[in-house]
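Batch 3, record 17
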Amino acid sequence: MAAGVATWLPFARAAAVGWLPLAKKTMPKPPVDNSSRSDEILYVNVSGVRFQTWKNTLDRYPETLLGSSEKEFFYNEDTQEYFFDRDPEMFRHILNFYRTGKLHYPRNECIQAFDEELAFYGIVPEIIGDCCMEEYRDRKKENQERLAEDTEANEASDAPLPPHSTSRERLWRAFENPHTSTMALVFYYVTGFFIAVSVIANVVETVPCRPPKGSVKDLPCGEKYQLAFFCMDTACVLIFTFEYLMRLFAAPSRCKFMRSVMSVIDVVAIMPYYIGLVMPENEDVSGAFVTLRVFRVFRIFKFSRHSQGLRILGYTLKSCASELGFLLFSLTMAIIIFATVMFYAEKGTKGSTFTSIPASFWYTIVTMTTLGYGDMVPNTIAGKIFGSICSLSGVLVIALPVPVIVSNFSRIYHQNQRADKMRAQQKVRLARIRMAKKGTTNAFLQYKEDRAIGDRDSDSTALCVKNRSAFEHQHHHLLHCLEKTTNHEFTDEMTYSELCMTESVGFRTSRSTSLSSQQGAQNNSTGCCPRRARRRAAMRLANSTVSVSRGSVQELDMLHVKTTSIPPQTRSSLNAQADDLKLNCGEQDFTAAIISIPTPPANTPDESLPPSPAPIPGILRNTRATAYTHDTVKISSL
Amino acid sequence: MCPPLIVQFISRLLLLFHYFFTLSDDDLEMTMVCHRPEGLDQLEAQTNFSKRELQVLYRGFKNECPSGVVNEDTFKQIYSQFFPHGDASTYAHYLFNAFDAGHTGSIKFEDFVTALSILLRGSVTEKLQWTFNLYDINRDGYINKEEMTDIVRAIYDMMGKYTYPALKTDAPKQHVDAFFQKMDKNRDGVVTLDEFILSCQEDENIMRSLQLFENVI
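Prediction for the assembled complex:
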């Protein structure tokens, strides 16, 4: 209520005159207020929408942007107003906050946009008024959950493995995401199959089979074919044990793994077998042993690794824990009350089944859940009256928390659907990003081409240059400076991958050629024609290498046939730095070299610029020709 | 049983059912009392404020009380904000009565501005008169010891519990005794307006401090 306090302060100070005659000591001097008293109107222009307000209104909250001297940075001398290049719709709410002292959250706005505006104007979201606070909190929580899910989905599944992952990490990944490799998929299906087999065996072994010859009684199949079932059980348990040990080995954090729900289920599923092996065959403990066998049915929960629906159900129940708890508690209360009442109502009748209050519990539960087995029935009138009240209230009590649980389930289910859709869209998005990256890297190569041409021929330079903005020019110049600094050049992915191929396959044979071409490489300048000659030589050399590289060279050849300009001087340089580049052939991901300037894709600017020359000391000359083709050539940095 | 009793009982039962089923929300009726002050010129003539000052005052007042009046609860709330340590409600009650010159139960803008005009721009006599009115709770023209004790206790309440030195229970009484010692000239147990003004004019401290709050607006 800062606004209120500020307004009433003069009145409170004036009312202090009432204390003066009573004062025992002299009053202190009042603070000298040098600020100008007159209230002036400020003009605030937000993207063309002009707002006007008193200066005092804004001064009410001096810790915000508009209330402090920070707004002077936005003051426009020519128009005598404060100009902000922000959303005028949102600004309306911000200004209302100053006026009324209460910040409201507009329900039709995006929560993130609103948060950003608040952050810009220096207003903490905690002061949102009570009327809007709940809605704000809900939307914010929902948004955060969504973002957390998205980042999880991004990180988790289909991201390619980091290059230097150990076998342990690869194993863990195979377990967590079976789609990544065929081996993992096979293992996934095999375990699923064995879980099903184990569960079916558990069920079937209790079915009565035809008795063996000489006996009348029906035997359960488990006893008739005891050996067969035992072997099947052993096989399943062996597989499960093996799987569990593998997971334990591969888990990045073993303690966390051992505490997780799935691992507990695994342990519970295989423990009974081992305990059964260990325990002796005497009669006393076999009763307990039989109980343990019940735990084998928990193997069915292992299916939750295979089924997402089960996981959703489990997650729903976990998140509705409080509602379920309430349901349980209220049911317990009602059961106790009604059981007591029914017991005392039926106490007098002869042959009544309500022998004690705990016995009445059974009746109450069966009635409240509207089962009505009919094994216990009230006979007295009072008993019947209370019995009917019991069944009516049972319906109510059970129906109350159910909508909450259902809505929770529906929310989680939809979230999950969304996650799946996001994953599918991710691929499309990545493809789009790649296209954008290509465009920008092509632009950069074009720029370098033009400069190269421009060195010799200034007329054509003008033609090429006019289509690019000043921003692009400067940016490209910057990248060029970087190249010069690090003594490396930006190149394309195809060239790089070809290099890797020749390295891994034609390593030995190309070594001889590399020495001869090395001199050529070192003499390389940024001119075009020397490259062409060298390229021919390089190609001849390359053709003499292993056939694998020939394919790629021919591909390059094809490209060059299409183009009219400078071909890449790939082979020689690639072969030149043979040993250094071998290290990096394992690398699967290339990050884009160049930011896309005209079309801003989301992720690229951060990844692109600083190439790290250290790990890749080799020089990869860029494929200038491909800049002119509009083929799909990816430019990647190092 | 007598028929009238039965009838009464049944009518009460019916009324109960009526309330139960209709779930009347008559308490939702809005009491929108709105008050507008007299014109700016009139107020300027009546008080010692300039037009601009009145404008600033009214803007603040209207912002806080859109209905144009302040009732006692709101007044207490506002005043308590300045003294969070203690309990300012009693003193605010007396202050409210002092502001509410017409005893209407609510302070309008005119009352507010008139009082402020006296307190900030009035002459010494006017200020002292206003203060005397504040102390004279029952408006009988005399301040007796009980009234003064109430006022002083209310002021000490605003200090709260945590003071240095710690507040003794008879501190208000001592304070009142000292006050009466100074103000009650003829020792008749009550202080009249003239006695009050005279005594205050004799005290230099009081005279000097009366000038302190002149430039609050």
